[in-house]
Amino acid sequence: MVNIEEFITSVVARATEELYGVSDNLQIQKTRKEFEGDYTVVVFPLLRASKKSPEATATELGEKITSTTPEISSFNVIKGFLNLVVDASFWASRFAEIVATENFGMAEPSGRTIMIEYSSPNTNKPLHLGHIRNNLLGYSVATILKANGHNVIKVNLVNDRGIHICKSMLAWQLYGGGETPQSSGMKGDHLVGKYYVEFDKHYKAEVKALVAEGMSEEEAKKKAPIMLQAQEMLRKWEAKDPEVYTLWETMNGWVYEGFDVTYKALGVDFDKVYYESQTYLLGKSLVEDGLQKGVFFRKEDNSVWIDLEADGLDQKLLLRGDGTSVYMTQDLGTALSRFEENSLDDMIYVVGNEQNYHFQVLKLVLKKLGYEWSDNIFHLSYGMVELPEGKMKSREGTVVDADDLIADMVGTAREMSQELGKLDGVSEQEAAAISEMVGLGALKYFILKVDPKKTMLFDPRESIDFNGNTGPFIQYTHARIRSILRKAEESGITTEGYAQAELLPEEIELIKALSEYPATVRTAGQQFAPSVIAAYAYDLAKQFNGYYHDHSILKEERTEVRALRLMLASEVARVIRSAMALLGINVPERM
Questions:
Q1: At residue 546, what are phi and psi to the nearest 5 degrees?
Q2: How many CB atoms lie within 10 A of CB 420?
């Protein structure tokens, strides 16, 4: 299919080459809405070659293009800008191409293999609102990259070891009384999270008591008995103590079952799951290699470091004095094994912006070790999600739990849909399915429409509004079009002969919007930005609603005009469905 921007650029380049002997550094943009035209050529950069005024240059160029290119029907000049009007027949043939293209918007295979890591939860608590942003962002970017023709491997690195895991385990041992997900009726991840909060409660009480006895707060935090017990438990875990190891496996098993339920409800999945307990020792050999090459140095306490001060950073620990690894050690080893095992072209980490420095160091250390592919590591950094009532803290139990939020969104979607009469006449089963689709669509769209780098405020009720820039507005537009198409089919109305109809300006605008979908998918892939797709889907839905408000479809008496409008509606629904799928959002057939 012809790329319109490329076509216009080639037309202008050919004309400027013939007139002025130049064809590069052309400035072409979409014509602003207040002016007549489709594409605007900025002629100021051509003046040195044309040796004429801006107006004379633009006029001469416009005359040349319209006389040699039948697809450009007319032009107008405003100061130093040449506005080109693309002929209606051009848009008609583009529309026919869109209709005939089965996977419209999807790119041919690129031959590139990209791994994207997202979710990366800790096994000491359930997933929360911050994890939801991470999962939705990672899954959507993976889907967009697939649409760009890449081979995509979706992975999850579960943080299943460390002091925070031992805190939950110890609290369960001390205060759990043998409670299990089965005996309590709680999801496993919620049960383990309950004991993480329980640990913090007892820890704070012990610190307070020690301070009251005259100890400094800093010392009390180190010497609180429960903290010392947790540290001892971690040492036993690393020594593979059978009792501690069995408890660890049992409680992690509870958490994984809980996570799987949440992932399924969110509609996200993974091709491979890595576990930190299996990867934390990777990278020690890399550290030895770096020492031999003189990239790293050893301090008196036997710890290993890298000095990055010449690179504007600081000194970074790579191995503790007792030989145990740190996060950086693990990430170095994991990165190497992933690139070598999967022949990766790119590796994307979806991790919050508090880890920006970590990934800056990771890339730099790999580069200094001689791994050129370190340039192909990308940290997709995102901001925190806040609620109208403020920030969340896991250890204090003030987080917004992912399962509760999903349930609330579905419940609110049902309540609001019923109020607006959007569930009238549907079965209970269908009402439940629509409520789930709308609730999750609202949640996903509200989060993904925001640039990932920005900290965002999530307001559940605002996200389910059926008007404005929301998922339900776009879902309802799709359902409305599907209703029109069903009625047409029931009445025996077809799209036959649609190509014979003359296009109205509003119809050309809709075809233009549709024709921009492949370029939008490409841009979203290049920028790892679902927000680009979200903005496009909203604009297309809004544009169609305006068109449908002004132009009847089924009541139109001219057969070919009715056929054209029906075909336009059908293609708008198809592209909305495709765009929303890139965001991980389903759209209902009826509402």
A1: -65, -40
A2: 13
Fold of 402-582: Isoleucyl-tRNA Synthetase; Domain 1 (1.10.730)
Instruction: Identify the helix (H) or strand (E) that includes residue 348.
Output: strand 346-352
Paired tokens of 199: 């640990």
- The residue length of the chain stands at 591
CATH topology match: 4-86 vs 402-582? no
pLDDT at 398: 54
Cβ neighbours, 10 Å, residue 121: 24
> Percentage of residues in the chain with pLDDT exceeding 70?
98
Q: DSSP label at 77? A: E
- Encode 358-413 in three state secondary structure: HHHHHHHHHHHCCCHHHHHEEEEEECCEEECCECCCCCCCCCCEHHHHHHHHHHHH
Instruction: Give CA–CA dist 451/532, Å, rounded.
Output: 9
- Residue spans per domain, the chain: 4-86, 162-271, 402-582
Question: Per residue in 34-69, is it b (16+ CB within 10 Å) or e — as a string?
Answer: eeebbbbbebeebeeebebebeebbbbbbebbbeeb
333 Cβ neighbours under 8 A, 6+ residues apart: 279, 281, 282, 283, 284, 285, 286
Q: How confident is the model at residue 317 (pLDDT cuts 50, 70, 90)?
A: very high
Region of residue 412 (left: phi > 0; alpha: psi -120 to 50; beta: else) = alpha
User: Does the predicted TM-score (pTM) go above 0.85?
Assistant: yes
Give the residue among 107, 147, 84, 90 at the shortest CA–CA distance from 511.
90
- One-letter amino acid for residue 567 of the chain: M
Strand pairing partners for 348?
116, 378
CA geometry: angle 412, 417, 422, nearest 5 deg:
165
Name the CATH topology of 4-86.
Gyrase A; domain 2 (3.30.1360)
The Cα 520–Cα 536 span in angstroms is: 7
pLDDT in tens, 237-258: 989 999 999 999 999 999 999 9
